[in-house]
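Appendix B. Extra example for self-study. Work through it before the problem class; the solution is given directly after the inputs so you can check yourself.
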Amino acid sequence: MEDNANIKKDTISGAGDEFVLPYGDRKNDGVVQVSFTLPVDKGPLGEEAGRQVMKVMGLEDPIIAESAHLSPGFTFFVGYGKLKRPVHLSSLKVATPLWESLEPGEVDRLIKEKLGRPLVVVGAATGNDAHTVGLDAILNYKGFAGDHGLEAYSSFTVVNLGSQVPNEQLVAKARELNADAILVSQVVTQRNVHISNLTNLVEILEAEGIRDKVILIAGGPRITHALALELGYDAGFGAGTKPRDVASYLAQEVLKRKSLY
Amino acid sequence: MLKLNLDEEKITQCHQLAKNITSKVNRDLLSYSTVSIERTVARFSGVNGVDEEGVPFPNILVNQIVDKGKISDGAALYLGNACIELNATPQEVSHMVAKGELDVTNLPWHGAEAAQAKARELCQESLDLIKTNRKKRESLLRDMPVTETPWLYVICATGNALEDAVQARMAASQGADVIAVIRSTGQSLLDYVPYGITTEGFGGTYATQENFKLMRKALDEESEKLGRYIRLVNYCSGLCMPEIAYMGAVERLDMMLNDAMYGILFRDINMERTLVDQNFSRMINAYAGIIINTGEDNYLTTADAFHAGPSVLASQFMNYHFAKNAGLGDELIGLGHAFEIDPFIEDSISYELAMALLVRQIFPDCPIKYMPPTVHKKGDIFFSHVLDASFNLVSTMTGQTIHLVGMLTEAIHTPLIQDRYLSISAARYARSAAKNLGKNLEIAPDSLIQDRASSILDDTLKFLEYVDQKGLFGAIGEGAFAGIKRHRSGGRGREGVFKRSPSYFNPVEDLLRQELF
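Solution. Structure tokens for the complete assembly:
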């Protein structure tokens, strides 16, 4: 299946027998700090419940450093324990985008030289989502943390549709502009509403037969590249993404698809 | 005592310009009304509830008048006339309309005078209730005073009104003075108000009258227990601004988020719709004694906060005068701002302190609302907690009134039970530990703080001169605020704006005007 091929291509793993345990103040001491609330009154029984909860987590020698009364029937715990079971890095498979980080000037030069026209990017916060901070940070000229958005690049033509855009409208706009890429921002996370909305967009693109014609990107604080691939997207960008990350990826992906890179 | 040396002449000029700008807009829009205003009149008259499909009766009634091409006369005349003719209550009239049994615009006409008198009489009960609520709040505040400032303001947002009430009570018992229930994402763009107690929301809880009532009751009980009156907040914004103002007034909410330009800029709601609704909703809030909270924090989250100072202050001047024009007293104008400068800019705390003090000093009698850092928060909850500590300190030192408590998990999820506890504890610590710190310090002349404040005031004056010259609509069209361009004919909800006919009648507006001016 093409999806699996996609994941494999983008997977990295650890080497050899390398294993890891949490590091407190010496290698492999396994020290872990946790905090959580239990629906119990503060007191000896509550503290014991707190320690047992940590044991269930797999932490040995649990210590409750602090237990604080939140309100009748609720106690907050800060605890320390030791994890003894290591994680073997070689057993992990992690999806990650395989692209190089390029300077903005380099992105512009690459696209101009190899493609000879600007990339058309359409972005929106879809469905009920009213949050555009992330989308604006990536697309708008102003950018984010000193990194200019895609509008600042000569190699991108950006159309930012803003918030609460129905998927159908986004697809219609992408068709109309013959977009190279669609950026979807999803912030709202309650009851996983973002997931169904993201898959719905893929379904619409497939139904209209243009899924393969665009690079489809999801972004948002709870989005990971792995999740995006699973949902049928080409890439996912999570918290801390800078506009240049998206620009670098887009430039390389478009050129790769056209065998120009 | 922390005090900036400010050019009073410039402050006066800023006020004068903002007064010009806002009065021009209000005059310009005097001859308009909106469907949401007419639905509010219906609600004042006692029309409430929804049909089997969940469509509110106020919408059904007003939609009929729109469909018949008569909305330019306002809803009140037709409702008053129908009640006389049928000897029925407004609620009964709306049910008949819903069943398709009645056309309120096509009944024997009892004359404007009789219809107006009836319409006035119909909304009197709601007006009386709102006045009673205002008095009740005053008496509760006397019996259960909130003695510490800033008031600690926290948000509940479970999506489930019943769960919100539990969390709100817990937050109050931990020290919160003000509880805001944030709305379900997207409610601002609904052209109706949902009905009943709701248990499913997205990123927040629907604002409904039943949810307001439920929360008010829970907080009244908790206030009684704590001996401290807990204020309740909701959002009077979006396409149903005046209807929510009405609902908040009759259910004794204490504060409403209510910004003059927020909907225009950040929700792409039509300018005329927003500003016409705005004025009417602010009159209701004024009459109800509800503190409005303006949303200047949004400029700081969208634009780079280091450079946004003048647009924030300019917006505050305009929000202030829009509010004054609608009859709100200074004690009800909660101008907003936020602690959003990049924490890694050297001396960022001094810049924040300069702005906080500047706002505090220019609007001395307004309950200033100070909002916490959000933009520069990431997954490191420990650093986030430290950042909030700086915010708490600046807020206390500069004497802010309403302190939105920052959450250490801001960038991650809606607050967990312990997040609220940790954040409230930190804010309480600053409020007590730095209680008189500001009174013991002075701002050095020619200091970074003094210079920063003076330069923001200078730039604000220039900015307001520009807006005055272009007019507010023109300036927004050029992207003067938050870099977002909107046009008078664009945006959502414009179809719900209409020009008043010579026979237009709105008893609520008339009675509010008599009371407020």
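Self-check: Residues 32-124 of chain B form one domain. If your reasoning did not lead you there, revisit section 3.
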